[in-house]
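Q: Start with the shorter request: fold the first protein.
A: Done. Sequence, then structure:
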Amino acid sequence: MRRTLPAFSKEYKLNGEGIDLISETLSNALEQFGMEKRNRIRIRLSFEESLLRLRDKFGKDATVVLSMGNSLGRPFIQLSLEGDVFNPLSKREVDLEDWSGALLTAVGLYPQYSYTRGRNILRLNLPMRRINPAFKILIALAVGIVLGMLITTCCSDTQQAALTEVVLQPIYDLWIRILSVLSGPVIFFMVLTTVLNTGSIEEEGGSSAKVAIRYFVFSAVSGLIAIIVCGLFKGSDLVIGQTLGVDASKYLDHILHVVPEDILTPILDTNTPQILLFAFVLGNGLVIIGTRVAGLVSLVRQMNMVGLLMTDWVSRCVPYFAAGLICYEILWHETSLLKNLWLIMVLALVVSLICIAAAVIIVAQRKQVNARLLVSKVWPSFAMAVRSGGLDEGYGETEAACISDLGIEKHYVQVSLPHGMVLYMPINVIGTLILTIFAAAQFGVEISPGWLIIAWLLAIVMFVATPPVPGANLLAYIMIFDFLGVPDVVLIDAMIFEVLFGIFASAGNQTMLLMDLIMQSDKIGLLDRQLLNKDRRNKKR
């Protein structure tokens, strides 16, 4: 059932009574909306803190307007106050939002600040409850297969060719154009924002470089395992196109051309390495300059939020395009990869489970905790991530599990959890590499050692820099496929794989992250080992 908010707008004074009334109204509205309890508390507290800061700035006689309703089909809550520019979400007025707020804003758990027509505005776009995306994509797959079989059975070859040319081919071309036009700029602003948010870790006393390198290395190891497994399964089918010397020369030329000639060409041409390099360099430059470019940083984050909204729209379109595109594959007799998609899925799941199990066992041994107990503590958040198919419903459960079950210090969790969810996605790296290698082998793409290295690096960097929001991975796929010479038609099967495997991947990434948080929090003395070893069932008694 679709969740909505009734239209509401009312003025309140910023005194104690007014803030209490706003808080009560918000709490009741979110409860009726059906939001999970911990997420309701998070949102209510973030608004309460913002209202207190607004009162300190503008005084208790100032008037704030609380509005609720639905815009473009998405429910929202908004506070607006007339006056000078003042961002209540920032620790300092020069910052436009807390660094961890980017991810939480994207999934509807954190408000966003803007200043429009003389009014300070805090707006929260609430997550909409949807049918599990895996269920929708399976329906689309079934519909596409049935349509394709009916058309091939009931229509002549001439009729099939006409239907494909007039209807299905334009739909396919439209879908590819949508992904192509969005992938460059959206990925650019995602990577740029990730670099900016990572740089802000220094303000919390941590080392952004060490954190990023650690996640990069762990993802690299996971990707290497995936490549080795693909070699064992598909070694005889790989088309080795060049000698090592020629191959090295070819990819050395690619590396030397990673520096773009100008700023716009990489984005317009969707040159993946150049986009990534430019975003990383520009992001680090903005971090070094600091508060002097606060306005530009704000613009970048606003553009990133627009990009995240676009990726959400793309993810909603996937099931509707999938049925027609599967039918297109059937009529064009391009179903070889689709028929083997189950094998790719199983292989990716097995490799991912092995990596997750290894991480759990290593943590259990090093921290002297029972592995079964550790699994029982992370299982509820894992299961919720799989059931919901996203971050919005399970984030509060995961944060609570880190603090009350795993014994990790609260502030460390609040800083590291959203950051890790953006940077640490080793399971996505595994799935992407296995699908890419199988697809390349299936379509006769020349796979050389250099090709594998480039695929490995692209997958790691893409998923270190791409936030785990719906649709973002599909844009990453088109950039990886384009650079590696994998045919665009593979994107049809990648849509199905991304949705089905992506649900497990988000839960698996989360579990791997929790294992890392246990290890890192213990190193700096922020882990309660007694709580970590305590059985939750005994605690309840």
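Q: Next, the second protein, separately.
A: Sequence, then structure:
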Amino acid sequence: MTNKLVKGTLILSIATLFTKIIGSLFWAPFQNIAGDETVGLYRISFPFYSILLMIASAGIPITVSKFVAERLSQNDHNGARRVLKAAALLLTISGIVAFSILFFGATFISEVLLENPPTKLSLQVLACAILIVPLMAVIRGYFQGHQQMMPTGISQVVEQVIRVGTVIGLTYWMVSVGTFTQAEVAAGATSGALTGAIGGLLVVLWYDYRHRKTTPLGRPSKTESILPLSKKILTYAIPISLASLVLPLIGLIDSFTVPRILMSMGNTESMTNTLFGIYSRGEPFVNVISTFSSSLTLALIPAISAHVAKQEMRAVEHKIKQAWLMTFVIGLPASVGLAILAQPLNIMMYKDDLGTITLAVLAFSAIFSTLAVTSSGILQGLGYNKLPVRHLSIGAVVKMIGNFLFIPFFGIAGSALAMVVAYMVVCSLNMWMVKRKSNVRIGILRLFAKPVFCTLIMAFSLVLVLYVVNQTLPDDATRWTYTIISLVLCLFAAVIYGITLLLTNTIGEQEIRLLPMGTKLIQLLTRFKLIKQESLSSGQ
């Protein structure tokens, strides 16, 4: 059972990492084809879909997996199927309600709430996806209850690949034809959510068909009617749904406030959408940084729960330090490097340097968001599930206040600054609560001093080289030139930073083993005497 769980967790982690990377990187070709205004319309529309989708489905897949696992532990396969049927019925109803709100209320939402009529078509297309995604999520939860993670992992990958393919392919066709408006192109792009959901649903339905053919239901251990079972599912799922609403709430706050503030400053509707699209340029970079940092802590968070259960607080202290250190070691230099290389990276990805300052400011949100996510996982491992939700809610309020304070003075870069401040608050609250609730003494300054020192050396070297490059760069440098500059300087910064990490003993064998191909990397570093031979046999 343990091996099955570990294998399943690994499959799901790889699939999630893969889908997040694809979901982050597709923005560049999308923007290159459609332009910033279309991206802005897409971005403004999506938070409403995310919120209604969370209301319609979030929490129930997790609940389904729990209820199914409980019945399977009693060898009640028939009861497990009844859980699936009850949850499917619930989400079909909630999906129809959410669809109706978004589809038939699209005019009111776009014209009154968003004050952006061109978003109407995108909202209506997204509404159709709400009819499919919840059902797919329920079947995923059913298989997770069986500790079968392959259906979820494969369906996630298929869903994302089809979604991205639809966005890029359909957008390219619509722009090539040249007869479609910006609003229609944005709606075409949002249809990727629908086609991706259909693809993901077909995958889990195929797995369910195979499962029903090979798994005998047997006799139920007890009879459960659908209505009381549905009530149990809702009772357990609603608190989870409410907690899941907080993160998309930040996106919804931006959709509500940023365009309004920009238009109040005298910008036209078209310019406002364009500025919002430019603001969105930094999000894929930040998401990639967050994804890699979060993936490194996947193995640490469950370990903290196990140590807490055994009251092994010294081990808890070690794991917390390790989780924070690895997150900081990756998040800090990535954020600083992104800020320094904002201009060449911006041109490499988006063809021009519009919004470079906004991208540079937004880069610093990555370090705080990654530490916030890691600290949130630690708090959950310690058994405090509600605290991260409360802190993220506070962060959402800070983001809204920050938008009104900063945008009038700094333009769209003010929204990026508000994001940095919001995640700084969330990060500080999470880390403070970790120290307070874990009852372990962790010297934060001592823990983070070496990574800061290594990052400063990297930053100084990178700024120096970038200055020399800019002095020799011709005025008519092409996008390909900036692509080569970006990639070479990223590699240069990574090498400088990696060497300083090893020379200062900031990380050792245990931390390197957390990296992909960590064992081979240790052998290579040992050969070049960048790691001491005796460290390979040392304990904790």
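Q: Describe the second briefly.
A: Confidence is low (pLDDT under 50) at residues 533-540. The radius of gyration is 24 Å.
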